[in-house]
Design goal:
4-stranded antiparallel β-sheet, alpha+beta
Length: about 140
């Protein structure tokens, strides 16, 4: 039989196949087509058969992650602008330091998940911004 044990989870059900593989990153699916290797149906681990296959997979996942980050940066900037916040004021409200929003919007640093969630909430409900501003001042 064409199976072996998974080094990651110990399952004995790894199977050698070529198939599309999907991983989630920040809630977004990343699909790499035709991944050749040993696939574990229990934990999703992949043992690549060739170095070229591993590199192709890695490059595809990295490119997709970069695209997700780029879209996130654009959305962050658009939301901040819609709310009428300067980068310095946004940093004062949400934390992260004086240059935080500049660095988030340029992709130098990644914002926290909680900050992104709060910004999405404020984007949908901008009337809450005054309450957030007030709470930020009280916490200082």
């Amino acid at each position: 039989m064409n199976t072996k044990s998974c080094a990651a989870c110990g399952s004995a059900a790894m199977v050698r196949v070529t198939r599309d593989t999907t991983k989630n990153y920040k809630g977004k699916p990343i699909t790499v087509p035709a991944v050749d290797g040993w696939h574990c149906p229990e934990c999703g681990e992949i043992e690549f058969v060739t170095a070229e296959g591993a590199k192709r997979y890695s490059d595809a996942v990295s490119a997709a992650m970069d695209a997700i980050h780029s879209a996130e940066q654009k959305q962050l900037r658009a939301t901040r602008k819609r709310l009428g916040l300067k980068q310095a004021e946004a940093a004062a409200i949400f934390g992260g330091g004086v240059n935080a929003f500049s660095e988030y919007e340029r992709g130098i640093r990644q914002p926290s998940k909680s900050m992104l969630l709060l910004l999405r909430l404020l984007d949908r409900h901008p009337e809450l911004l005054s309450e957030v501003r007030q709470s930020a001042q009280l916490g200082a």
